[in-house]
């Protein structure tokens, strides 16, 4: 039953039901577009070019059902951040811009058996030690600085390489999406320039919104799932958010340029050249998919090495082994990715390139791609908020396959640009206020980084998660709150 409309310039959305808004297909749109948001979030989403970009994505060949925007949606490069587009793998295309420059930017959460009381009083030492030992910021510097031969192994094998070299244990792989390895990876399709950019950045946070955050669990909303995930109130957990660094960025750039040169005909049919796509069946489709999967493997190793180093820091600060502190991986999930997945479309099983750009896979209980440890309760979904607002752990909801190709939001979603943030906030003031008023210790390479990531720069993560939960695409399990945070 329709409950009215929402007007945003030349875009008028019709409300299908609560939290579901549709832009009907008109003109050259191949499918309708849908926004999953409350009216309050929709007001924020409509303030930039998100809705226009969402409408543009409906022109991509092979797009199925509808183009989707999550409740944390905001303007991106061509394809909105918070966007999901499922494109037919036989008749459609694959779009680097719909994956994003930071291929397999994602999050991993590590659990501990420490309580908040045990960590209280060590925050300053902990944040200084993490900052000193986990490389961050622009440019080079990683936990492993290597030659191109090693980079090729990482691109091909993912976390399996880290396991062989002592940076991982078997359980880490079992609690990672795809067990930390994309078998379709083809290192030969990643350019030498991209490999050169990546070889000195293996095990580094980078800059921007990437972070390592020590958190405490403040709420467990679902005791049964919380137990299955190993989460309980007052527990200390660690969240790592980063991606494929310069290697992923260069890979996206390389393939956008190649596609622009070789598939001008398709490009001319699209309303925005930033949506440049390689048609299914083309050589560039195969090449980009192989290169993207290799960059995905690189990002998983990047987060694995940061987790390894974090374990070492905790061992020194608390003077016991990481095994004794039960510093185990809860889950690692990507949120900038395109994956070949089989979905039900109008009663038929079809293979699709599901592009999730600033969106998280959220498969429900029973799905065969959910790790065995969690198959009975559903895939863990990790939604980071701002460094002043806390984060959430969800589980894949039972409606996700029908509504969103098994996806939900990836974070709070930005409200203002980095430039605007630096004009509105002073990094030192933000840092001092977080420490003085909220007992959150923050350390970054520059005050500008803190200003760009100030809590006021982001949407309300509680509202984003409320919408996901009420739609049944990602169900609330637990909430966390920052203890200390390092940024690039």
From TrEMBL:
It catalyses: a 3'-end 2',3'-cyclophospho-ribonucleotide-RNA + a 5'-end dephospho-ribonucleoside-RNA + GTP + H2O = a ribonucleotidyl-ribonucleotide-RNA + GMP + diphosphate + H(+); a 3'-end 3'-phospho-ribonucleotide-RNA + a 5'-end dephospho-ribonucleoside-RNA + GTP = a ribonucleotidyl-ribonucleotide-RNA + GMP + diphosphate. Residues 178-199 have a biased composition (Basic and acidic residues). Binds 2 manganese ions per subunit. The active site is at residue 410. Its cofactor is Mn(2+). Belongs to the RtcB family. PANTHER family: RNA-SPLICING LIGASE RTCB HOMOLOG (PTHR11118). This is tRNA-splicing ligase RtcB. It comes from Natrarchaeobius halalkaliphilus. The gene is rtcB.
